[in-house]
Each structure stands twice: as structure tokens, then as C-alpha cells.
Specification:
globular, alpha+beta, Alpha-Beta Plaits, 2 domains, 6 helices, 11 strands
Length: about 210
């Protein structure tokens, strides 16, 4: 008898931290909320043929390096990391389609096993000032900038956004550094009167 295929359940790089986290709500969450969205569907690719291939797959491509655009129906985002590297995240059907599609020469898949945090709240800038040397408040968010920098010593990719006048930033990092980044930012958030929330609490921002 043939056994059924084994399909392991995906586990967030932050799972150990989440198991011991103290979750907040209400005024604390409005001050500063940090959620784990590491299990959002994502697909990465790069190469000289990546732009034309993504366009042929119906994926909008940001016009400028280090910028982002929203997928159709607002179901996710496309980040242009440099000139010819891309990250597509948020739309499960599209991500599966891209992963299964045939890629021509000049298009190379990039394995994405990132930890990803969603930060929001009125005290977010105070957290950023304590953890990063980039002045995010000076950025023009209408250009959808993607910032590659370091945060508490960890290399990160940051997509700053704002919804309903509330700042909400996505932060990606190598999964092996995710737990350290998570724990450090949560400590700062708690000092600022905020803390950890479940991703479902911030679903409107996804």
C-alpha cells in the first residue's frame, strides 16, 4: 500500500517567541502593535529576464528599483529589490501559479524563508528611532519606497505604508535572525506601551 504524501505544516521562524508572548489589545495595541506575518505566501525571483517574465504572468512590476506596488484587488504586494530581483507576497493563488510556471533562461527563483513582522500604531516612529538609523518620517510614502537597512543589528527590508492615517510597516529579515529581531522589538514596544498582537488583529492592513 502506498502511504499518503507527507506535507509538513509550515512553521513560522518566530514560533518559539509566539508561544511565550503576552498579547495586548485595546489602547496598548493602538499605541504599538507587532504581529508575525511570516507565513504570508511569497515568491522570489531575479535575473535579466525577470521583468518581462513577471509582466507576462500578469504581475505588475514597480517602475523604480527599491520600490513596491500593490497587486490587483489589493491582495498583496510586489517589491523590486534592486534592479532585477523581485518579491511577490500576499496572494496565495498567484504565488502558487508563479512557483509552478515555466521560467525561461534569465529568470532564477529565489528561496524566501523570511521572518516578516507587521508593525503599526501611533508610537511606531518612536520604536523606529530606537532601533534603526533611517529617518522614516522623512520618506515620501506616495512613492512606495522599499528600504534596505539594519534594525537592532539585523539586516532588514522595510516597506513603510500608512492606512487610515495609521503607519504600518512590513519588515522582512533572514529567518535565522527573526526571533532575535522579534524579541528585541517586542521589548521596545512594551516600554512604549504596546506589544504583541495576533495577525488577525491587523488583517485589515494585510
Amino acid at each position: 500500500m502506498m502511504s499518503a504524501a507527507f506535507n509538513p505544516v509550515p512553521v513560522s521562524p518566530l514560533a518559539d517567541g509566539l508561544s511565550s508572548a503576552v498579547f495586548v489589545s485595546g489602547e496598548e495595541a493602538a499605541n504599538l502593535a507587532i504581529a508575525d506575518i511570516s507565513l504570508q505566501p511569497r515568491f522570489g525571483c531575479k535575473g535579466p529576464g525577470a521583468i518581462s517574465w513577471l509582466t507576462a504572468q500578469g504581475v505588475p512590476v514597480p517602475t523604480a528599483p527599491n520600490s513596491a506596488c500593490v497587486l490587483p484587488q489589493g491582495k498583496g504586494r510586489v517589491l523590486r529589490l534592486g534592479v532585477t530581483e523581485f518579491l511577490v507576497e500576499g496572494d496565495a493563488a498567484l504565488v502558487a501559479s508563479l512557483a509552478a510556471a515555466q521560467r525561461p533562461s534569465g529568470v532564477y527563483p529565489v528561496l524566501r524563508q523570511d521572518a516578516c513582522l507587521l508593525l503599526s500604531g501611533r508610537k511606531l516612529n518612536a520604536l523606529l528611532l530606537q532601533s534603526c538609523n533611517v529617518n522614516f518620517a522623512a520618506l515620501d510614502l506616495s512613492t512606495s519606497p522599499v528600504v534596505l537597512t539594519s534594525m537592532v543589528g539585523v539586516g532588514v527590508t522595510v516597506l513603510p505604508e500608512e492606512k487610515n492615517d495609521v503607519p504600518c510597516y512590513r519588515v522582512w529579515c533572514d529567518g535565522s535572525y527573526g526571533l532575535y529581531l522579534w524579541q528585541t522589538l517586542c521589548t521596545i514596544a512594551e516600554e512604549l506601551g504596546g506589544g504583541t498582537v495576533g495577525a488577525e488583529s491587523l488583517a485589515v492592513l494585510l
